[in-house]
Specification:
By secondary structure, the protein is α/β, with parallel strands linked by helices. The protein has 13 helices and nine strands. The protein has a nine-stranded mixed β-sheet, sandwiched between helices. Helix 11 (313-322) links the parallel strand 7 (298-303) and strand 8. Helix 5 (219-232) packs across helix 7 (247-257). Mean pLDDT is 92; it is low at 1-26.
Length: 367
């Protein structure tokens, strides 16, 4: 018996000596470094499955001992977490000296599982997903991978802000604070028409070939980009920034750079389809007021009345139904008003003391 035990201990020791160096060769990722987590077979709200699902993310700052300082921030339409890094750091929108920031690549952005990077479901074989599916991936990353059952806040811009509404309604006790900038809980007819036109423009590209592109797309992508550019800011903004005689030059510049690989175009289409389908109240079979009343988080909503890309009406209605703080961004920058008006101080204040922030209007140039 003693001999067997001795042999067993020798085997354990040998295995341990092998394992320890292996772990030592994989130090924690550097602040802001791209990371990936596998969630296996990812079942969508539709019942379809994304195979071998992986989610991209980055973390910055330190998680405190009580795991109470985590903030989750998913990406907006077509963006990657790399683009959010500039807003994170000491003295920035999210102070990484105080908070543990989790930046999440949304489904279909080419980093997290997407039509462009799927081995088994490439292109249009990649199932349609929803904003709710994106939000579910966000939640599972935080809870299952990072081991954080409750967040200080969930924050997002545009499509990221839509995920904020989804999480706040579906998982009301998942966060203390919810902050949506230029987001919405429900796409209006105007939104649906805009995104549908952009998809149709891409599919009219000569290389589209009924969803089996023969090569990079350019003309259709350019048309979609032109539609997008005319709506992401207000008509007043475009008139002020592009002289009448420069209109053709402006369009030509878009045409010149519009050359996109097939898989990436399908990424863009799938994310737009998700926005078109956005209907948080409808997911629960309730009214906007009833959906809003499911929310337990202290909520901050930022909208611009000049937003021609994501109609501010549903977000304003949602906020009114629960008495959420509404910051109206009065700027010709429209959907991009949060880049033309300094909102960082408001976000920081709300994160620290939500009750200290009330309804107000911020005007470009008056700060």
């Amino acid at each position: 018996m003693n001999t067997r035990r001795h042999c067993f201990l020798k085997v354990v020791a040998a295995v341990w000596l092998f394992i320890v160096p292996a772990f030592g060769q994989s130090p924690p990722a550097a602040d802001g470094a791209q990371q990936f987590a596998s969630l296996g077979e990812f079942k969508l709200q539709s019942g379809e499955v994304i195979h071998d699902f992986h989610v991209g993310y980055r973390t910055l700052g330190q998680l405190n001992s009580g795991k109470s300082n985590a903030i989750l921030w998913p990406t907006w339409l077509g963006s990657k977490t790399e683009e959010l890094l500039e807003y994170c750091g000491p003295g920035k929108v999210l102070d990484t000296g105080r908070y543990f920031v989790i930046l999440v690549d949304s489904i279909g952005n080419g980093v997290t599982s997407s039509p462009s990077n799927s081995g088994s479901q490439p292109g249009l074989k990649f199932p349609r997903f929803t904003i709710r599916d994106m939000a579910e991936a966000d939640r599972r990353l935080a809870t299952e991978v990072l081991g954080i059952p409750h967040l200080r806040a969930v924050m997002g811009v545009s499509m990221g802000g839509m995920q904020v509404f989804e999480l706040a309604v579906a998982y009301p006790d998942f966060m203390d604070v919810a902050i949506s900038l230029s987001g919405s809980p429900q796409s209006t007819s105007a939104d649906k028409i805009l995104w549908s036109l952009e998809i149709e423009a891409m599919e009219l590209d000569p290389a589209w070939n009924n969803g089996n592109p023969k090569g990079p797309l350019s003309r259709g992508v350019a048309l979609a980009e032109q539609i997008d550019t005319m709506n992401v800011t207000s008509p007043a903004y475009r008139a002020a920034h592009t002289k009448p005689g420069d209109a053709e030059k402006f369009l030509a510049a878009i045409n010149k750079k519009a050359r996109t690989e097939p898989g990436v175009v399908i990424d863009q289409i799938r994310q737009r389809q998700a926005i078109i389908a956005l209907d948080v109240p409808g997911e629960f079979g309730v009214s906007m007021e009833q959906a809003a009343k499911r929310v337990h988080a202290r909520t901050l909503v930022m909208v611009s009345p000049q937003d021609h890309m994501v109609n501010p009406g549903p977000a304003e209605e949602f906020a009114k139904d629960i008495g959420a703080a509404v910051i109206t961004l009065d700027s010709n920058c429209g959907h991009l008003s949060f880049t033309c008006i300094s909102v960082g101080p408001i976000v920081a204040k709300f994160l620290e003391r939500p009750a200290s922030v009330g309804n107000q209007t911020l005007r470009e140039g008056s700060q």
